[in-house]
Specification:
This protein is α/β, with parallel strands linked by helices. The chain is built from 7 helices and 10 strands. Strand 4 and strand 5 form a beta hairpin. Helix 4 packs across helix 5. The structure holds adenosine-5'-diphosphate (2 copies).
């Protein structure tokens, strides 16, 4: 079954008389556990597409299904709940809460899902161990290295065992060696949990490691042959 599906997505930004047609008629299916990269030049619309897939913005036309549920059919509250349970987000910037420890940051999505504190704590601890941060549970983001912060963000994205993780250049801020390491850990965890991944990147060497590579170009999403990546 599909972890994530989009049909006929269009997005037009309107600012006064100025209209930017980012794309129209973009469709995409991501099956359970599948990892998909979306390549594209700066301004091609990758972040816009990811926002629509994640229910953070509303398409001008088209529909998105997350874990079989149509996003547009849900109330804001139900959409927020589904987003927290069925999706994980990892951005270039970690977006961890600075006043909370790594453990507390990773516990939050579990608590928001209505689970007891003890369960949230034990799940968060397992995920942080999985990304090699068992010695950093009580550290706040400001006390972690760049790589450690992104690893904590990966743990947070995966802690609710979502259907799909949406990544927007999740290792874009790290040096090459750290980026490769964090990326490998994220992929390994995704695969272990059978969580799908949609990764927006301009880095072809990262894209090549995923099951499928698409390119967003002039408003169209096209699958690339392995020889083109
Ligand atoms: P990418 O992530 O591939 O760099 P974006 O999705 O950020 O591309 O942007 C796609 C196009 O949409 C660009 O032309 C950008 O200027 C425009 N755009 C993005 N966000 C907005 C916005 N909030 N309002 C108006 N135009 C926007
Ligand atoms: P990573 O490969 O995870 O990014 P680094 O090589 O950057 O790790 O850092 C190695 C160690 O140095 C980290 O485990 C971390 O504890 C410590 N460290 C790095 N930067 C900072 C920082 N800004 N504040 C506190 N500790 C740091």
């Amino acid at each position: 079954s599909d972890a994530l599906r989009a049909e006929g997505l269009a997005k037009t930004y309107a600012e006064g008389d100025l209209k930017t047609h980012v794309f129209h008629d973009v469709s995409l299916s991501v099956v359970e556990g599948e990892t998909v990269a979306i390549l594209g030049a700066s301004g091609a619309g990758k972040s816009t597409l990811l926002h629509l897939l994640g229910g953070l913005d509303t398409p001008t036309a088209g529909e998105v299904w997350v874990a079989g549920q149509r996003m547009n059919a849900l109330t804001d509250a139900a959409r927020g709940k589904l987003r927290n349970r069925a999706l994980g987000f990892v951005y270039q910037f970690h977006h961890l809460l600075p006043e909370f420890t790594a453990l507390e940051n990773v516990m939050l999505p579990v608590l928001l899902d209505g689970k007891p504190v003890a369960e949230a704590a034990s799940r968060a601890q397992v995920l942080l161990e999985n990304v090699g941060l068992s010695h950093r549970l009580q550290h706040k983001p400001g006390e972690l290295s760049g790589g450690e912060r992104q690893r904590a963000a990966v743990a947070r994205a995966l802690v609710n065992k979502p259907a799909c993780v949406l990544g927007d250049e999740p290792t874009g801020n790290l040096d090459e060696r750290t980026a490769a390491h964090v990326f490998e850990q994220m992929l390994e965890l995704n695969r272990a949990q059978k969580t799908s991944l949609v990764l927006v990147t301009h880095d072809r060497s990262l894209a090549r490691k995923l099951d499928r590579v698409l390119e967003l170009h002039e408003g169209r999403l096209r699958q690339l042959a392995p020889s083109e990546v």
